């Protein structure tokens, strides 16, 4: 479950996008990563890495994170900040 | 955490830098020329200028001025000369600290000389690009993207031949390779303290050759000739209270560099760079931008097939505890010439303190990412 959000210290400023880190109440697991399919976009999951990496990409936002972390990053076009609210709502639905 | 982002800011710093700043912060503050006390910062700044002269190959050290870094120094030089933007000739390798001042002067656009796929600028291309409007050449000595070092002997000769101002951005080269500012006929140069000079953020400066006058960007108190409100051409360039603790750190950093010897530092960093390039060259799906450079700084930029540089940097930082830098590196024009995409590159940059085992960890991370992306 997503419990908090904060402006990313390493936002995608060079590309002109903003980014936020979304904090979870438990380590991100496969179930959570599977839930990302509720959102629009194509999901990439690189399981063979030392720590598996996932990324969901859509035309005006990107979600990326590492399995086992307590946060993931959501970068978005400056006009699509509302997509963060939408993503939190859909990912927190049971 | 393994830190391979030294081209942004070097880390760690020599112990003597930290100790020197600590000592400066604990000492009684004194004004620059503003008090007659025994604790004079004038000695600190003068001593630092002398050491900078040794590192930069500048004899006339009184023409070195302190600033907050290269960006302020370059803005001071580029705006201070009073030329129009189209009177500047610069290159595709430049950082935005050069490009943005020039493109925002509001007086046309500079002439951009292309570079090759390694980020190297041909002196002959510079010669061919000189127009009857050209008054100055502005060039990045060492690319912060590919590490390519430009041929300053040849470019200095061209500047002299055409009687042009030669402005050198030493941000990436100062402290990690020999500089011969006087020998290269450089009219003005800018440097920052927090990269290979091993100082801290907020330090740096610029040099202006005697006879070249800049209109200051910033006016204010200097502690000298306070009755003079309107200058009669004899400008001062260090207005406001100077950064004494930062300069104390920079001075100690210069001691470290001079004691260690810059040729020794350059050799060690070159060995690390060559080793890293040799190891990643054989990884399928990895492309090195600027692989074939004879003279280079400690910077290696790569692309990995099927993975955006920003994703690779994220994976390395959060999955492997390795700090790198992804994207355009604030040098937006070079990427087209070196064949990188619009997402830029993934950059690894080293320092004298980088260890081979840290490179090995990065090499393993790159291998994992490339293999994973290949499926």
Q: How would you explain this protein's 3D organization?
A:
- The complex is a heterodimer of chains A (94) and B (375).
- In chain A, 18% of the residues lie in helices and 38% in strands.
- Chain A is α+β, with helices and mostly antiparallel strands and 94 residues long.
- Chain A has one domain (2-92).
- A six-stranded antiparallel beta sheet of chain A has the order 1-2-6-5-4-3, covered by helices on one side.
- In chain A, strand 4 (53-58) and strand 5 form a beta hairpin.
- With 375 residues, chain B is of the alpha/beta class.
- Chain B folds into two domains: 2-9 and 262-374, Alpha-Beta Complex (Aspartate Aminotransferase, domain 1); 15-260, 3-Layer(aba) Sandwich (Aspartate Aminotransferase, domain 2), CATH 3.40.640.10.
- Chain B contains eleven helices and 13 strands.
- In chain B, the strands form three sheets. In chain B, strands 2-8-7-6-5-3-4 form a seven-stranded mixed beta sheet, with helices on both faces.
- In chain B, helix 4 links the parallel strand 3 (88-91) and strand 4.
- Chain B is globular, with a radius of gyration of 21 Å.
- In chain B, 51% of the residues are buried.
- The mean pLDDT of chain B is 95.
- Classes of the chains: A alpha+beta (94), B alpha/beta (375).
- At the A-B interface, strand 5 of A face helix 9 and helix 11 of B.
């Amino acid at each position: 479950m997503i419990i908090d959000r904060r402006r990313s210290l390493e936002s995608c400023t060079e590309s002109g996008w903003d980014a936020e880190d979304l904090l979870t109440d438990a380590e991100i697991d496969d179930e959570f990563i599977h839930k990302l399919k509720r959102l629009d976009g194509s999901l990439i999951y690189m399981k063979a890495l030392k720590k598996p990496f996932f990324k969901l990409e859509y035309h005006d936002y990107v979600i990326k994170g590492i399995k086992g972390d307590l946060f993931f990053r959501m970068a978005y076009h400056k006009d699509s900040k509302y997509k963060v609210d939408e993503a939190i709502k859909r990912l927190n639905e049971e | 955490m393994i830190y391979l982002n030294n081209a942004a800011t070097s880390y760690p710093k020599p112990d003597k830098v930290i100790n020197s700043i600590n000592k400066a912060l604990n000492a009684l503050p004194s004004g620059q020329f503003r008090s007659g006390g025994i604790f004079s910062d004038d000695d600190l700044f003068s001593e630092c200028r002398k050491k900078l002269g040794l590192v930069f190959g500048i004899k006339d050290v009184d023409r070195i001025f302190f600033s907050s870094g290269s960006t302020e120094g370059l803005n001071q030089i580029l705006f201070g000369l009073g030329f129009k933007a189209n009177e500047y000739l610069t290159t595709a390798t430049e950082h935005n600290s050069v490009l943005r001042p020039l493109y925002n002067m509001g007086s046309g656009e500079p002439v951009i000389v292309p570079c090759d796929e390694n980020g190297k600028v041909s002196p002959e291309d510079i010669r061919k690009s000189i127009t009857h409007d050209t008054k100055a050449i502005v060039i990045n000595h060492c690319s912060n993207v590919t590490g390519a070092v430009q041929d300053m002997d040849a470019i200095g000769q061209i500047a002299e031949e055409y009687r042009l101002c030669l402005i050198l951005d030493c941000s990436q080269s100062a402290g990690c390779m020999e500089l011969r500012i006087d020998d290269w006929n450089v009219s003005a140069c800018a440097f920052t303290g927090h990269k290979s000079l091993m100082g801290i953020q907020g330090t740096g400066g610029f040099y202006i050759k005697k006879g070249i006058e800049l209109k200051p960007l910033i006016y204010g108190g200097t502690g000298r000739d306070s009755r003079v409100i309107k200058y009669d051409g004899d400008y001062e360039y260090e207005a406001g209270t100077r950064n004494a603790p930062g300069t104390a750190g920079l001075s100690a950093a210069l001691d470290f560099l001079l004691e260690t010897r810059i040729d020794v530092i350059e050799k060690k960093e070159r060995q690390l760079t060559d080793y890293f390039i040799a190891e990643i060259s054989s990884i399928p799906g990895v492309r090195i931008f600027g692989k074939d450079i004879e003279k280079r700084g400690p910077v290696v930029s790569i692309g990995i097939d099927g993975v955006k540089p920003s994703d690779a940097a994220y994976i390395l930082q959060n999955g492997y505890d390795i700090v790198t830098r992804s994207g355009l590196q604030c040098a937006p024009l070079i990427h087209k010439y070196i064949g990188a995409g619009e997402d830029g590159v993934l950059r690894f940059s080293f320092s004298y303190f980088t260890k081979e085992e840290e490179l090995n960890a990065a090499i393993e991370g790159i291998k994992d990412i490339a293999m994973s992306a290949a499926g």
